[in-house]
Amino acid sequence: MQPKRTFHTLRRAGWICAVFCLALILTGCTMTMKDQPRVNPYEPAPFFGDQGSALPPVEDTVPYGMANTDEALYTGQVDGQYVEEYPFMITKEGLEYGRQRYDIYCAPCHGYAGNGDGMVVQRGFRQPPTFHQDRLREAPPGYFFYAITNGFGTMPSYANRIPVHDRWLIIAYIEALQLSQHAPVSELPQEDVAKLEATQ
User: How many independent structural domains does the chain possess?
Assistant: First the structure.
């Protein structure tokens, strides 16, 4: 009889422990965090002198990490002149990423080869100039950055759609497109020169 009594005692103790733990959990689940005093956005509040619930940012403050101190990087200009060089090193991987961004944002108007014959142009929209005309082939990178950032003619600004770094990579790819159509034969690899000679 003793083992049976011990089993029932342990079982009863287990139930008591479970009920005790459940009581502790339930007492911890209060709604004080949800029901604590708070102020809704733009709701009047007596805490500040203007009776507003929040103060506006201090004039001329900049969010942490958002100080655009590099004029060339963020504007494409230095002292009002378009920059002639990229503000960071362009790698092969970066150029490939620029191609991807170009295909997404630029090719619908400018076409995949940069001739200004994209799909929206084929649907009746105004044709942009080809990137292969002398004026644009000779334009510095800063010129393209300025146009992408601020818009040009009927082209809207893409500043809120394309991050700064991506804009520069797109420009690098545009220059690669231009070079692909106007590369001097003397600068081509020997195997490409041989292919050209074979087609003549």
Answer: 1
Kindly write down the DSSP assignment for every residue of 49-68, as one continuous string.
TT--SSPPPPTT---TT---
Tell me, what CATH number does 112's domain have? 1.10.760.10
The answer to whether residue 144 is domain-embedded is yes
pTM: 0.67
Q: What is the pLDDT of residues 116-147, one digit of tens each?
A: 999 999 999 999 999 999 999 999 999 999 99
Q: Does residue 2 have a pLDDT over 60?
A: no
- CB distance 146 to 76 below 8 Å: yes
Rounded to whole angstroms, the Cα distance separating 199 from 176 reads: 23
The domain in which residue 95 lies consists of: 83-199
Instruction: Read off the amino acid at residue 73.
Output: L
Say if residues 109 and 118 touch (Cβ distance below 8 Å).
yes
Nearest to 167 by CA among 116, 114, 97: 97
CA dihedral 77, 78, 83, 89 (to 10 degrees): -100
Length of the chain in terms of residues written: 200
